[in-house]
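User: Hi! Is it possible to get a structure for several chains at once, not just one? Here's what I have:
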Amino acid sequence: MRAVLALVALLIAAPAFAFIGPDEVLADPEQEARARAITAELRCVVCQGQALDESNAPIARDLRMIVREQVVAGASDAEVFAFLTDRYGEFVLYRPPFTLANAPLWLAGPALLLLGSGIAISFVRGRARAAPSGRKPLSPEEEARLARLLKE
Amino acid sequence: MIVELGHLALILAFAVAIVQMIVPMVGAHKGWVDWMRLAVPAAQIQFVLTLGSFLALTYAFVVSDFSVRLVAANSHSAKPMIYKVTGVWGNHEGSMLLWILILTLFGAMVAVWGRMLPPALKARVLAVQSSIAVAFFAFVIFTSNPFWRIGSPPIDGNDLNPLLQDPGLALHPPFLYLGYVGLSMAFSFAVAALIEGRVDAAWARWVRPWTLLAWINLTIGIALGSFWAYYELGWGGWWFWDPVENVSFMPWLLAAALLHSAIVVEKRDTLKSWTILLAILAFSFSLMGAFVVRSGIITSVHAFANDPERGVFLLWIMAFFTGGSLALYAWRAPMLKSTTVFSTVSRESGLVLNNVLLVVATAVVFVGTMWPLFVEVATGRLVSVGPPFFDAAFTPFMIVLAMALPIFSILPWKRGDLGRAARPYWGIAALSVVLGALVWALQTGGSMFAPIGVTLAAWVVVGALADVATRVKLLRAPLSESWRRTVNLPRADWGKTLGHAGVGVTIFGIAALTAWETDDIRVLQVGETFTKGPYELRLDAIDNVRGPNWIAEVATITFSRDGRERGQLFPEKRFYPVQQFPTTQAAIHRSLTRDLYVTLGDPQASGGYAVRTYIKPFSNWIWIGALIMAAGGAVSLTDRRFRVGAPARRRSEPPAAPMPAE
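Assistant: Yes, the chains can be modeled jointly so their relative placement is included. Here is the combined structure:
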């Protein structure tokens, strides 16, 4: 009975987390490392928020194989990404390329840092220059009176 | 019957919440003491009723009452008892009830322990807190009622998502909610202060422990979630920049900023309006988290039922509280002026820097999380934003934060001298760089990630410890003097040291794991041996095992080092027949220096099984660091200035030693 149940279990493919199959791994460790660096940038295009490397969907496996074939064929990283985006669109990339359309995404951090620093610096300098509490700067009349008093 | 009583208790709690929202607020406005006082018993009754309601639902799960729709949909009679209990919050309706339970718990805690609060402030805080509860009671009762019965109950239930059938479910959501919902307290204090138009050092002192309590729980909750994902999802990832993780991380970052800015309000009576804004934002991001997880607007492994009707209701709640409080802020905040003076180089400006970095980093996470949604709505284009983006865009802020932390956290208040403050730290900086260089030399090439991480971690940890060493005059004064100073050092300072050191420990864990992790994928026949790093692993057997509500294939793998057996690992592939769902149970041999992590894959056509083996160096330091941070928060929370009634007790104490007469 157990064996039957286990067999049933194996026949059913569910959208579970899986790992790169042993038959997918390239023999050359350097090429494999390059392929992994590329697939780490890719998502599974049919799964809900799953990375390519963790999906056992057939298409995820196909994409991993395509990347490896291209790496073995000597394609550059840029060529592999171009090949994939031509077919699956920008959606496949986890790191949107720096284009005009994606500029707000990439520039939000630096721009807000500049803005935040600007506000913070003006606040801190304002505090540093502010008159100590309870003492206001002298008005022109007071200045004039002070000058008169000092002359006397 | 018990289920109906729970339903009734929920509706009564809703009614009490409505009264508590209105009466004390009017009383505070008119100065009617009796109306204000009503808030205290009301908050307690509200909590007790909600607790009763929650226990009734738990009872339905425990006895597997499948006539309750929620139980039938999310439980099963064969499920182990612990998952029957934790399954109460393993679904949308039940987790919402837990949310409210914690919301009313915080209200009751303020009612009971807030004796020192001025009556009007206390009344307003509890009224605002209750208004949040009213919104969520309405949400649960009208759109997500957990007590609905079904006419013809099924013989057995649908079972719980197997990924959630783990002890992690017992701890992760309650801690996370204590954190999320705990931030409502800071929010209620902020709104009450805006209504009152007064923010002073005393206000900051009252609000800080509640923020600290929320932050501690959020830290533990996020760390537990990360720890759980690490072993449950079968490949040892610990952070995925998944939208739902991000919406828990953003309130954490903002709460950390709020903790720091509240210190400035307390000690220096400035940054008041900014602190109020942070308190509002921190809770608004918590509400956004609830909305994102439950509306289905962003798909994620965490998402609960994707129901547009609920999503719209939550969107209204979020819009009302965020929009309302921000409008109130725009109207009242200009009244909060401060005349405090401090120099450009001072602890105050250091804390401002901390706030700028944490808040901008939060904004980066926010933009990255929302970008795909925004682009799709605006242009119809589909884009993804994932870990590579966040690693590139978020990490720089944390690097700058870690670089600045040790020096800026020891600058004196009001006016400091950067050169003088940094002088004792040159040695530590040199030591950190040397350690980083040593790592770089040892790892024979590779990325700069580990050397930079080790340098920063050493700098932050040693810097934090050096602060204490300086304060107690270690080696500069007789040991007895140092000991006396150590004992007398305020708890808040110990908390600060621990919290900052924890940041360093986590940085080290992240850097080491990211840089040095290695893996191995292969087909293994039973009896076969292979080598991974310094270890020899042998697949001894594959057995079929039957659990209470699952069946599994379990591998027995013996690992040895230098010819000596070190232990056995039992990675599993489980299958849950009711849910038709397979899960991977990784086997992990943990240690402080490395985890040996083995997962079992599919059987191969050629015979044998796929096996993936990882060596994950120093991974546990990530969560140990988080626990140290949380411990720092807990120690700080016990500081006497936060203890209820501490000032009063101090006043009544007789002077300990007679002062020399002048």
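Confidence is low (pLDDT under 50) at residues 1-16 of chain A. Chain A touches chain B through 56 residues (CB under 8 Å).

User: Great, thank you!
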